[in-house]
Amino acid sequence: xxxxxxxxxxxxxxxxxxxxxxxxxxxxxxxxxxxxxxxxxxxxxxxxxxxxxxxxxxxxxxxxxxxxxxxxxxxxxxxxxxxxxxxxxxxxxxxxxxxxxxxxxxxxxxxxxxxxxxxxxxxxxxxxxxxxxxxxxxxxxxxxxxxxxxxxxxxxxxxxxxxxxxxxxxxxxxxxxxxxxxxxxxxxxxxxxxxxxxxxxxxxxxxxxxxxxxxxxxxxxxxxxxxxxxxxxxxxxxxxxxxxxxxxxxxxxxxxxxxxxxxxxxxxxxxxxxxxxxxxxxxxxxxxxxxxxxxxxxxxxxxxxxxxxxxxxxxxxxxxxxxxxxxxxxxxxxxxxxxxxxxxxxxxxxxxxxxxxxxxxxxxxxxxxxxxxxxxxxxxxxxxxxxxxxxxxxxxxxxxxxxxxxxxxxxxxxxxxxxxxxxxxxxxxxxxxxxxxxxxxxxxxxxxxxxxxxxxxxxxxxxxxxxxxxxxxxxxxxxxxxxxxxxxxxxxxxxxxxxxxxxxxxxxxxxxxxxxxxxxxxxxxxxxxxxxxxxxxxxxxxxxxxxxxxxxxxxxxxxxxxxxxxxxxxxxxxxxxxxxxxxxxxxxxxxxxxxxxxxxxxxxxxxxxxxxxxxxxxxxxxxxxxxxxxxxxxxxxxxxxxxxxxxxxxx
Length: 651
Prior knowledge:
Elements (H helix, E strand, L loop, with lengths): L6 E7 L4 H16 L3 E7 L8 H6 L11 E7 L6 H13 L4 E4 L7 E6 H14 L6 E5 L5 H16 L9 E3 L4 H13 L7 E4 L2 H13 L9 E3 L16 E3 L2 H18 L7 E6 L1 E3 L11 H34 L3 H12 L6 E7 L27 E8 L2 E3 L2 E3 L6 H6 L2 E9 L2 E10 L12 H36 L9 H17 L3 E10 L1 H8 L1 H18 L4 E7 L2 E8 L3 H23 L6 E10 L6 H26 L4
Parallel strand pairs: 1-2, 1-3, 2-17, 3-4, 4-5, 5-11, 6-7, 6-8, 8-9
Antiparallel strand pairs: 10-12, 13-14, 13-18, 14-15, 14-16, 17-18, 19-21, 19-22, 20-21
């Protein structure tokens, strides 16, 4: 990362969610205004369960470059794991990085919180003073929950100011979800009590459920009953009637968080900041209380964006299916990297990089610890990283190995927001991704469709998992095939492998009228070496001959060990088969002579050879050629044995 720019880190979970997305946009907008770059470290889960998937997600926080940050913003309530959130804050403190905690008060941080109470009071007071409501039902969350109890008491207190009361029978517990709210409504209707003038709901999900139940019994909202919500969730945008609700002022919170860090960097010598800012919720008066008249032309207009969203989702799903199909056909890292780039480029990311463990596609022979230990940090898995692909300004770069994914100074200076996320298979960390984004406030075309980023990144992990599993499977299959056709001691073909390969080659060679040369090789004196020096030395001698054969094994040759000390070489020639065969024998002898001169062994390694060749026709029988070559080899072997006997000292 470049050193000229100024950086603020943002730690967040589920950036794709409506509230987090709005906060991200506000932070980026203010950061651009104040001359900062935003480095976003995001998990696509809220880390509440801390299951295996979450353990893979949190690895993104290992990437935070504390040493270059002017400050760190953490959206604390989005990260549900106390240990993860506290760990990030502790590391930032160790590096003397100013921290702004948003939503949750945290010691040692500058805290930005929201005032829920005043907004809730305002809504209750509004339905009483502006709409004349006297009988009110409160739809709370869980029973004995602090948030529920606080809002119930808030409602009682405001009602008391106007000489009104809230009876226990008019408190419904909807557990903050739609289905429990519907059941609570049904139970209330069984009491025989009259419907209230207003349902004051502690969140929008429960308010939407109450609207649906009222419609079922033929009641109009707000014509017969007023309904209010709280939180301003995404679904409320498309609900008719639109809810009177209150929502976090994420824009003001984002601006304040950046301003705190910018001001500290500019004016303070100390980077240890504490303090607090409380931001009111914004109350939005709309259809469900009657402050805004329902215009069904407006309602009809809501159908278009929903249809467009659904249509885009269908197209996206098809695109991801094609992505999987294309990745499954990739056989090399280059092909896989190009496939990723091909299907990523359509999203318009100004920069995209994917850094994986070095051994991602290099499956070990033991097939153990294929991905790496999940408790190691990203840079501890291997000394180098596999940069599977990089793309910026429509330029694609093929896979390379490097110490780390280094985003160039040019890119860091040009763009203002970078998103980082963990690539993992459940809790097995394999790398991370990075992308440059624009929200449009910096003059670039926005490419911040955060709703689909989560889909894309999860699908990318699945694609890599498929490729990784396929590589492992191919490795296993290849190993099994090798065990089936190769001699496990020497690496040469065994008898089965020899006949399989030669059979295929003979079909092609018959059409071009080539010669088939068979050289039979038998090691001299193996029994003597085994008996005198041991079988381990006998294996050394066998491997010396095997190495000699491997050294001459070209595209025209097939080398094999038929068993024990018996070896067979086949070669194809279009002309001069005698010369080609003798040349092979000469090169093998030279290799053995070199071994003997350097090995320091008390015995020489030698062999007997028999060569025979024949032009390949439809009548050629491979076994006949091998038999003739064997007979010629045995004649030479007898001569070698007689020669050794004459040289052996007599007792």
